[in-house]
Amino acid sequence: MKTIQVALLGFGTVGSGTFEVIMNRQREQFAHKVGADLVVKTVLVRHPAKYREQIPDQVQLTDDIDQILADEDIDIVVELIGGLEPAKTYILKALAAGKSVVSANKDLIAVAGREIYAAAAKAGKDFMFEAAAMGAIPIVHPLMEGLSANHIEEIVGIMNGTTNYILSKMAEEGWSYDQALAEATRLGYAEADPTADVEGLDAGRKVAILANLAFHCPAVFDDVYIEGITKVTAVDIAYAARFGYVIKLLGIANKQAEGVALRVYPALIDKRHPLASVNDSFNAAFVRGDAVDEAMFYGRGAGKLPTASAVVGDIIDISRNIVCGCEGRLGDSTYESCCFLPIDEVENPFFVRLTVKDSSGVLAQIGQAFGDANVSIAQVVQETLSAHDLADLVIITHSVKERNFRQALDAICNTEVVEKVESVIRVYGDIR
Length: 432
Prior knowledge:
Largest sheet: 10 strands, mixed
Helix content: 25-40%
CATH superfamily of the largest domain: Dihydrodipicolinate Reductase, domain 2
Number of domains: 3
């Protein structure tokens, strides 16, 4: 029986999880699942001696990528070191050396994915990256294969477990953002520096990757409009609930009348939508296509073994291709040209919370400013505040282009009745 040999680049959280799944958890299953044996031959780390006690003697340790590239027995290189460089160079060199590649590197793929796809197609090798999109949740392969009979119209998802945990706890417990972040950090959901998560950068990279697959277009990270959750308050969450919504950080890629819109931001979503019930650190992706109609993929979006599950799934898929002599069968699917809409041209409803003077005629003035900018009001709640003759005024609009809404907001701020714009949050979907 053929033995397919793998090199791991990196032995951190995901690298060690991948090693465990291959060498321990699935060791006896590969002959049945693949039709070949599968082993890790070499692990690349910066300081080999540091890892010798963790890795059996029969597995080679090296700090020299050229040793792996020159080894003709290595069939698959698995890049788990992260970052842009040297990861990109290692991947391109591995493909050029005739080795298929698996990566979990969303930072790199969101920036240079198309270059890597093209290099893999030229080499006739596989480049697979299921774990780079949504961790353990299978979404890359479904888009490339199972849903390939569709014109995908939209992908919307909860794509970051840290922010979903924070917003879930703010809703369930009435915590402030700072309280929820502190608990997420204590539990290990949030990094010591949570910027990539809470500012939406992590989700933005995933949107770029999925847009490539869904719309066959050369989307990159810079094409995604991004806002984080740091300005969302418990007050906003409470008002959203009164209107029948929850607030989630959503990654959205969809086709609108004038082009493709890619964005990440906190948004109100109807409590009846399947994504509204995705809580804690779980993630999900909701897909609409012209043939499939709707489908949702749900699970753990991160973690040592959940991410390793996706990585090893790719390794198994490539191994099957090697056994059958059909590596490179998927090729480069980014063959469409797309117009990416600036955020000003994107349409959706808005939730806006204002502190206003608690006096007659306030709503009339604000309604006039909205009407002059062609913004239609769908729902309104006004509540008197305890101090200074002020009131909370919360408005949800019908769907409108961002630039029209901003024009209306500027006009409102210039009236004498508005003391402060407390929050502006977009609404996902049509107003019921």
